[in-house]
């Protein structure tokens, strides 16, 4: 939250049933306050955590795990900012305890969002096999999509995804893993942001003075 001027965050859930008997929802407001195209934001990281733990009282966790709906929601927000000519840059953080079940649709959504002011951070928690998640990182080449019969093949205009598995960092012990994890997770954001600004032919805005912990 040190990099966000207003400390307000739209918070979404996926892979849950908001009410008994309803189908699994893949992009819903965890504070129950829907406001299209974004949910009513919560205040700070503490607000995100409070909303998350509160949502566990009324959301039944349920598969499948789909990433593309929430990426498409972020796409709408970033596209709106780009069309308005604002200098906003969005960072979508996805926290998951397992592999997603919509890899191709997720790749398609990432490719389509790659020209927008958006970066996507994915954190894998728990003991699941996350080996295939590194495909989304695209460190060995840009993601591409074969097309859908209407639109032809597309290649991402830039890399916008960083995936980090949290388990290797936990071995450092409580209180010792946060800074290394943050460094790894945020490592590609500066280059991704500058790459976007270069792609639209604009210099980055002047930085805002904020107090950032020295261990990050």
Would you write up a description of this structure?
With 216 residues, the protein is α/β, with parallel strands linked by helices. It has 2 domains: 1-63, no CATH class; 87-202, no CATH class. The chain contains 7 helices and 11 strands. The chain has helices spanning 44-55, 68-83, 103-113, 134-137, 167-170, 178-186, 189-199, and strands at 8-9, 12-13, 16-17, 28-29, 42-43, 60-61, 90-96, 118-124, 144-145, 154-155, 161-165. The protein has a 3-stranded parallel sheet with strand order 7-8-11. Strand 7 (90-96), helix 3 (103-113) and strand 8 form a beta-alpha-beta unit. Helix 2 runs parallel beside helix 3 (103-113). The longest helix has 16 residues, at 68-83. The protein is globular and about 50 Å long.
Throw out a few tags for this protein.
2 domains, 11 strands
Secondary structure topology:
Layout: E1 8-9, E2 12-13, E3 16-17, E4 28-29, E5 42-43, H1 44-55, E6 60-61, H2 68-83, E7 90-96, H3 103-113, E8 118-124, H4 134-137, E9 144-145, E10 154-155, E11 161-165, H5 167-170, H6 178-186, H7 189-199
Shape: globular
Largest sheet: 3 strands, parallel
Task: Report the portion of residues in β strands.
Answer: 15-25%
What's the number of extended β-strand segments? 11
Helix segment count?
Answer: 7
- What's the overall average pLDDT, rounded? 85
Report the radius of gyration as a whole number of Å: 17 Å
Strand order within the widest beta sheet = 7-8-11
**Low-pLDDT windows of residues:** none
Number of domains: 2
Encode the helix/strand succession as letters. Answer: EEEEEHEHEHEHEEEHHH
Helix content: 25-40%
Structural class based on helices, strands and sheet pairing: alpha/beta
Beginning-to-end CA distance, first to last residue? 12 Å
